Structure formats: C-alpha cells, structure tokens
From TrEMBL:
The lineage of its organism: Bacteria, Pseudomonadati, Pseudomonadota, Betaproteobacteria, Nitrosomonadales. Pfam families: PGA_cap (PF09587). It comes from Nitrosomonas communis. This is Poly-gamma-glutamate synthesis protein (Capsule biosynthesis protein). Residues 3-229 form the Capsule synthesis protein CapA domain. InterPro entries: Capsule_synth_CapA, CW_Biosynth-Accessory, Metallo-depent_PP-like.
Length: 275
C-alpha cells in the first residue's frame, strides 16, 4: 500500500524497499500485491478505507517488481474510469500487471515469464468485497476468485499457454484471522487439483498457516509488507516468500520476515522457514 506514510516516504525520495534490495534484485522474478489505485483522478467509493498513490511510485515499483497484482479490494477505490486510466498508465510506463484488465477476459489472463527454460504463469484473483469491482465482458476491473473461473484459468495456463509452473496469487480470507478459513482451504485444494503448483495469498493483514497439499505449498497469507496504521505484533510482522524451482519443476521455498516500523516500512529480519 503506497498511499499515506509510505507514499510520503517515496515523495521524499526515500526507498521503502531498501532493506530487501539485495533479495529482490537477486531474483529472476519479483511479484507483489499493489493494494491501492495509482493515479490522480476519480472520486472515492463509499467504503470505510480508500487508498490512492501518486504516479510517482511507478519508477520504484518498476525497479523492484517484475509485475504487480491489481486483484485486490482497493484497486477500484476511485471508480472504473480511474482504474482504467491506471492500466493505461502502467502500459505507457512499462509496469507489468495481472489480476485486472479492460474486460473479464484480459483480467483473467495470467502474467507469463520464461526463466531458464521454464515457462511460469501467475494469475491473480480477489475474493474480498466489494464484488462491484469485478471485471465483466464490457467493464474493466479485477479478476474475481470464482471457482469455475479459477479452475478454467489454471487448466488453460497449462494446456494453452504451455506453462511448466502455475503460481496462483489470491487475495482472500478474513482480516486478523491467523488460520485459513474453510473456504480458503477448499479453494486452495481445488486450485492444486486443477494443476496449480503453488499458492501465495494475502489480505488478512496477518500471516496465516502454511499447508503442503499433494506436495504443493500453500502460503495462505503473507501478511503486511508496506502498510502503515498498525501497531500490534501480528499486523506489523509480514513475510516475503522466496521460491526456487528444480529441473523437474519441484518448488522449494524460504520465508523472510519483514518487520514494519511506525511508518509502515519493512525491515528484513532474515529467514524464518526453509523447506
């Protein structure tokens, strides 16, 4: 989230990603959830919290991320036209994105990468209200986490995009809940049964449990990364997932701990879990 204090940090030409600079810049691919609109237009929707970052954040996003997910409950905070303009801005500046588009078809297309002979597909989905942010045939916005859409997209990535690896990036779950809900578990298992290879989730503002299902990792929630306004230990401790892939496409992963300061800026506390 690059509004409020993190946005001011960037305006002051400070780098909120500096503690993770070596890790991010050593990766072949870096992916993040962009939990705000980027732009200067639109009017705030009638909801408790709305987030909008200035376009000045785009260069630093491009510096650290191969692509960002816009599939969340804040991308549409300033209306459809502002969302559409944001996508135009990203296209003009070369910031790659996924989980949203000018219509439902483009919103559900995964972002594709080819790394060392492996094709990787990453689709993004939102499942947290309001559903009025969902892209339709004739409406721009985000990809919704509907079971039928998700299973179709995963199978399509494997069959038509010829992806060796699919990693689903969902925004789901209840805020402040440390354990994944039955809905999250059911959908996660359905994703893997449909051909998904890993799941990296977010939204609850806290980290959640990790599950291995049929040998595939499910990181239900990474918690917060850059986000101010929290004081408790659980909400100011987030994770960064580092994944590596073997020749046979097996996924290994490591968790790096991010501790947020009073301004919502993360400090790298090192590795937590290795598998």
């Amino acid at each position: 989230m690059l509004d409020e204090l993190p946005g001011q940090y960037i305006e002051e030409v400070k780098n909120p990603f500096s503690s993770f600079d070596p890790l991010f810049k050593s990766a072949d691919i870096t992916i993040g959830n962009l939990e705000c609109l980027v732009g200067t237009s639109g009017k705030p929707e009638d909801k408790p919290f709305t987030f909008r970052a200035h376009p000045r954040v785009i260069p630093i996003l491009k510096e650290y991320f191969s692509a960002v997910s816009v599939a969340n409950n804040h991308s549409g905070d300033y209306g459809l036209e502002a969302f559409s303009r944001m996508l135009d801005l990203f296209n003009q500046t070369g910031l790659r994105y996924f989980g949203g588009g000018k219509d439902i078809r483009s919103a559900h297309k995964p972002i594709l990468f080819e790394v060392k002979g492996k094709k990787i597909a990453i689709p993004g989905y939102n499942e947290y209200l309001p559903r009025s942010f969902e892209a339709l045939d004739d409406r721009p916005d985000i990809a919704w986490n509907e079971d039928g859409y998700v299973t179709h997209d995963i199978r399509s990535a494997k069959e038509f995009d010829k992806a060796d690896i699919v990693i689903v990036f969902p925004l789901w779950g209840w805020e402040s809940e440390k354990m994944a809900s039955s809905r999250q578990k059911k959908l996660a298992h359905l994703m893997i049964d449909s051909g998904d290879d890993a799941i990296v989730g977010g939204h609850p503002y806290v980290t959640q449990n990790i599950e291995i299902y049929k040998g595939k990792p499910i990181l239900y929630s990474l918690g917060n990364f850059i986000f101010n306004g929290f004081e408790d230990e659980e909400s100011t401790t987030g994770w960064v997932s580092e994944m590596t892939f073997s020749v046979d496409s097996k996924i290994n992963w490591v968790i790096h701990v991010a501790k947020l300061d009073k301004d919502g800026i993360p400090q790298n506390l090192g590795k937590l879990v290795a598998e």
